[in-house]
Amino acid sequence: MELNQVDIHYLIGAICVISSALIFYTIGVWGERIQKKLKFWHIIFFLLGLLADTVGTSLMEHIAELTHLHDEIHTVTGTIAILLMFVHASWAIWTYVKGSPKAKKHFNRFSIVVWCIWLIPYLIGVYLGMHLHA
């Protein structure tokens, strides 16, 4: 199916927002990993990544409705990723506020797992986008 000008503009916006989610989330997760301790600014980047991913996913959902191009695996993995990002950010806030120094130090194990899972729908979306326009 061909995309019209409105679809293309939504797609460009969604790609930019989803890519910013990748940047924000990566900075937060790997910043925490490198510094070996959960800090407030990591939480800000987790939340910015979650926000950008949620907005980008909403735009992508709108494009899928306009074009009738739905991919179930992408939808399911994307939903799981957003839920995990929400749990991750919530747990990070709790750990930062109430957690022990040991909990803050070992939080990054969960962060890396969530980041890797988040990459799955991101890469599926990249693949689908390239396949659609090939």
UniProtKB/TrEMBL annotation:
Keywords attached to this entry: Membrane, Transmembrane, Transmembrane helix
Transmembrane annotation, as ranges: 12-31, 43-64, 76-97, 109-130
InterPro entries reported for this sequence: HsmA-like
Source domain of life: Bacteria
Protein name per UniProt: HsmA family protein
Transmembrane listed as a keyword: yes
Source species of the chain: Bacteroides vicugnae
